[in-house]
């Protein structure tokens, strides 16, 4: 089977390529050559899809399927879909749950996506709206056979700078670790390797339509995830859970200072963890135990010392200590 992967070197693109090569597929990648090296067994084409005439390298060739992991600007996705519509059996676009019109709960495949014009740019709007515009772009091309997949949060090996990687880096420092909200809150992380295997199966089977994807409901809580991060690093860490009211009063920023934390006062709180996934699992999605994802991500970070693992993020150790002290001493509004 011949497959074209737009991207191919990032968190999702890398396992896509590795799995396709392993399964004997004829793989072509198209990217700028900036994120990382291409697999040695693929035909690597170069271009900047957002630049004028940036798709020149794709003007010849035929493929059984295209998997677009890199599309963000609607105009660029429209051009690539139109260019490849009659030279690929399937155009599989990787969108995002952020494209949906939240704060509805639960998140279903039938929720509408945001409005977004085809000429929208990163200067005009945010990530989720742009992904919605990309979905509109794919649907606007006559004759294109397409599948749109909307994953939730993808993690796993290669996620060193993402939420899971950041928690692992923090856990490696040990000591008292500030955590936000309720440890019983659900989490639906996806492993990049599981998503990659599933997308290739969808491409092989020629699936069309729209599918939301997330980790299995009820399989993991925030407490489970963070305790596993502490365990796999081998550091002597202890999680200290502070409530939303305290953290908001302290100016702690959701997702920025504490990855994965979102206060209940946020519109649509928890929607990303209330995803109905029956259709995706019926279509072959299968997820490994979350502990395997945590362990593999830490292994790729190198099982290193805290210094080698880098910093946690904008929440400095000094501020974290001050917040934990204030919380444990019963202060409702932390001192600066």
Give an overview of the whole structure:
This protein is of the alpha/beta class. 33% of the residues lie in helices and 15% in strands. The chain is built from eleven helices and eleven strands. The protein has helices at residues 13-22, 74-84, 127-139, 163-173, 192-205, 222-233, 244-249, 278-282, 290-301, 306-309, 317-328, and strands at residues 2-6, 26-31, 43-46, 65-68, 91-94, 146-151, 154-155, 175-180, 190-191, 209-213, 237-242. The strands form three sheets. It has a seven-stranded parallel β-sheet with strand order 3-2-1-4-5-6-10, with helices on both faces. A two-stranded parallel ribbon has the order 7-9. Strand 1 (2-6), helix 1 (13-22) and strand 2 form a beta-alpha-beta unit. It is globular, with a radius of gyration of 21 Å. The termini are far apart.
Please give the radius of gyration in angstroms: 21 Å
How many helices does DSSP assign?
11
Q: Report how far the terminal alpha carbons are from each other.
A: 60 Å
- Characterize the largest beta sheet: strand count, sense, and whether it forms a barrel: 7 strands, parallel
> Which stretches are poorly predicted, pLDDT < 50 over at least 5 residues?
305-310
The beta-strand count equals: 11
Query: Helicity, in percent?
Result: 25-40%
Mean pLDDT: 91
Principal-axis shape: globular
Report the β-strand fraction as a percent range. 5-15%
Strand order within the widest beta sheet: 3-2-1-4-5-6-10
Give the helices and strands as they follow along the chain: EHEEEHEHEEHEEHEHEHHHHH
SS content category: alpha/beta
């Amino acid at each position: 089977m011949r497959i074209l992967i737009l991207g191919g070197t990032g968190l999702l693109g890398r396992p896509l390529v590795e799995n396709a090569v392993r399964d004997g597929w004829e793989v072509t990648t198209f990217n700028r050559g900036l994120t990382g090296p291409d697999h040695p067994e693929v035909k690597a084409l170069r271009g900047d899809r957002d630049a004028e005439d940036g798709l020149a390298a794709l003007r010849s060739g035929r493929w059984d399927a295209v998997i677009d992991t890199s599309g963000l600007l609607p105009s660029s996705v429209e051009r690539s879909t139109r260019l490849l519509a009659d030279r690929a059996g399937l155009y599989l676009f990787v969108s995002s749950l952020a494209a949906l019109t939240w704060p509805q709960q639960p998140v279903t495949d039938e929720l509408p996506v945001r409005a977004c014009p085809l000429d929208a740019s990163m200067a005009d709007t945010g990530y989720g709206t742009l992904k919605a515009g990309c979905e509109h772009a794919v649907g606007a091309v006559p004759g294109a056979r397409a599948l749109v997949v909307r994953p939730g949060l993808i993690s796993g090996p290669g996620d060193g700078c993402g939420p899971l990687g950041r928690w692992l880096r923090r856990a490696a420092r040990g000591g008292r670790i500030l955590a936000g909200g309720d440890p019983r809150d659900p989490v639906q992380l996806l492993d990049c390797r599981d998503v990659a295997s599933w997308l290739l199966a969808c491409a092989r089977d020629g699936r069309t339509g729209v599918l939301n994807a997330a980790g299995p409901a009820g399989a993991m809580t925030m407490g489970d995830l963070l305790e596993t991060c502490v365990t796999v690093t081998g550091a002597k860490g202890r999680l200290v859970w502070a409530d939303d009211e305290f953290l908001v009063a302290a100016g702690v920023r959701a997702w920025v200072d504490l990855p994965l934390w979102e206060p209940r006062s946020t519109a649509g709180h928890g929607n990303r963890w209330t995803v109905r996934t029956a259709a995706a699992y019926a279509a072959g999605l299968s997820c490994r135990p979350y502990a395997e994802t945590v362990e593999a991500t830490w292994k790729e970070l190198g099982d290193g010392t805290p210094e080698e693992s880098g910093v946690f993020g904008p929440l400095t150790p000094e501020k974290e200590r001050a917040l934990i002290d204030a919380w444990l001493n019963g202060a409702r509004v932390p001192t600066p």
